[in-house]
């Protein structure tokens, strides 16, 4: 259970982030739902949590903008009194073959998916160090381990997140702050809905457990990493991919 | 001036579990008071709270001794 804990989930208006926000709230955490553009969807997540008897607020912020992140963290602490759990989930894709990929497509993805994790982690560290407690959970991707054609930018960012996770874990361990990553495989979300039927079938053939993942599959592992049960785990990347990459 | 030093000293003694006699204006956090880099970051955070001021990363990096901290705080008030 996560009673009395306060969580900030970035990119929580849809997809995996939404599932994580709902799961943490269902376990009793007060949740700040961060979003970049989808205010309506973020509000819907907040309402869903409130209707189930939980507490939640929505906060608009670009995760790679340190000023906006600073304000966001301040708002969470002012509203809920502290901040125990940060889930760095916000991510975008700008898929293209290497030969065609524009420099700005590369930069955009690195900015949100990798620099965003750095900025948000730095933004919460002060609060967590004071509390002498913190749980930081970064959403990487299995392609950050395996590579994936057409996603040089995304893969580079997600592999970077794994390295950042390890480095931050070592730096913050002495303050009782754990940092772990979860690497989802092929999960059904808006992002993966953009794939073609052929790509989808090829993917399925590579998943030993024979099904696509759901946001909830990821959310349950994030919840575990956020609870006391995971006190002795830090710096790890947990693959939640139906056995795709071993 | 003396007042700032006493307040800073108290925080250092509490935070670093340092011997009071070792906390002088000249004492280096890392060399004389056995603080690691993270301890210094935390100490700076506490000083910000105690003196209700904000110490930028650039300024914080220049704080190596107790005197550096005391002088910086005094220069801000």
UniProtKB/TrEMBL annotation, chain A:
Presence of the UniProt keyword NADP in the record: yes
The record's section on SMART domains has: PKS_KR
The entry's keywords: Fatty acid biosynthesis, Fatty acid metabolism, Lipid biosynthesis, Lipid metabolism, NADP, Oxidoreductase
Q: Which InterPro entries match?
A: 3oxo_ACP_reduc (IPR011284), KR_dom (IPR057326), NAD(P)-bd_dom_sf (IPR036291), SDR (IPR050259), SDR_fam (IPR002347)
Q: What is its EC number?
A: 1.1.1.100
Boundaries of every Ketoreductase domain copy: 5-185
Top-level division of the source organism's lineage: Bacteria
Which reactions does this protein catalyse? a (3R)-hydroxyacyl-[ACP] + NADP(+) = a 3-oxoacyl-[ACP] + NADPH + H(+)
EC top class named in words: oxidoreductase
The UniProt family comment states:
Belongs to the short-chain dehydrogenases/reductases (SDR) family.
Subunit arrangement? Homotetramer.
- Report what the protein is called: 3-oxoacyl-[acyl-carrier-protein] reductase
Organism the protein comes from? Halobacillus campisalis
Lineage of the species this protein comes from: Bacteria, Bacillati, Bacillota, Bacilli, Bacillales
TrEMBL record, chain B:
Which residues are in the Carrier domain?
2-77
Tell me the residues on which O-(pantetheine 4'-phosphoryl)serine occurs: 37
Q: What does the UniProt PTM comment say about this protein? A: 4'-phosphopantetheine is transferred from CoA to a specific serine of apo-ACP by AcpS. This modification is essential for activity because fatty acids are bound in thioester linkage to the sulfhydryl of the prosthetic group.
Keyword annotations from UniProtKB, A to Z:
Cytoplasm, Fatty acid biosynthesis, Fatty acid metabolism, Lipid biosynthesis, Lipid metabolism, Phosphopantetheine, Phosphoprotein
Which compartments does it reside in? Answer: Cytoplasm
**In terms of domain of life, where is this protein from?**
Bacteria
Q: Does the keyword Cytoplasm apply?
A: yes
Q: Which family does it belong to?
A: Belongs to the acyl carrier protein (ACP) family.
Q: What does this protein do?
A: Carrier of the growing fatty acid chain in fatty acid biosynthesis.
Q: What is this protein called?
A: Acyl carrier protein
Organism for this UniProt entry: Halobacillus campisalis
């Amino acid at each position: 259970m996560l009673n009395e804990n306060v969580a900030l989930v970035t990119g929580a208006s849809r997809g995996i982030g939404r599932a994580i926000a709902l799961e943490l709230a269902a376990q009793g955490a007060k949740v700040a739902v961060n979003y970049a553009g989808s205010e309506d969807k973020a509000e819907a997540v907040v309402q869903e949590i409130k209707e189930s008897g939980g507490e939640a607020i929505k906060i608009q912020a670009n995760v790679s903008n340190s000023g906006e992140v600073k304000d966001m963290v301040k708002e969470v602490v002012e509203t809920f009194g502290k901040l125990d759990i940060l889930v760095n989930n916000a991510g975008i894709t700008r898929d293209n073959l290497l030969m065609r990929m524009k420099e700005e497509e590369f930069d955009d993805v690195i900015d949100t998916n990798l620099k965003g994790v750095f900025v948000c982690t730095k933004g919460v560290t002060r609060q967590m160090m004071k509390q002498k407690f913190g749980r930081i959970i970064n959403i990487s991707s299995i392609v950050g381990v395996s590579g994936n054609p057409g996603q040089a930018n995304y893969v580079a960012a997600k592999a970077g997140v794994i390295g950042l996770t390890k480095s931050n874990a070592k730096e913050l361990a002495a303050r009782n702050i754990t940092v772990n990553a979860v690497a989802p495989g092929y999960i059904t979300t808006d992002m993966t809905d953009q794939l073609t039927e052929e790509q989808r079938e090829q993917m399925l053939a590579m998943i030993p457990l024979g099904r696509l993942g759901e946001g909830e599959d990821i959310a349950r592992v994030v919840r575990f990493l956020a609870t006391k049960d995971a006190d002795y785990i830090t710096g790890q990347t947990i693959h939640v991919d139906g056995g795709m990459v071993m | 001036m003396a007042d700032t030093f006493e307040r800073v000293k108290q925080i250092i003694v509490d935070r670093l579990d340092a011997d009071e006699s070792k906390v002088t204006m000249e004492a280096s956090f890392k060399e004389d008071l056995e603080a690691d880099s993270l301890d210094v970051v935390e100490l700076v955070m506490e000083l910000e709270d105690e003196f209700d001021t904000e110490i930028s990363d650039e300024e914080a990096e220049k704080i190596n001794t107790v005197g550096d901290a005391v002088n910086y705080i005094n220069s801000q008030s």
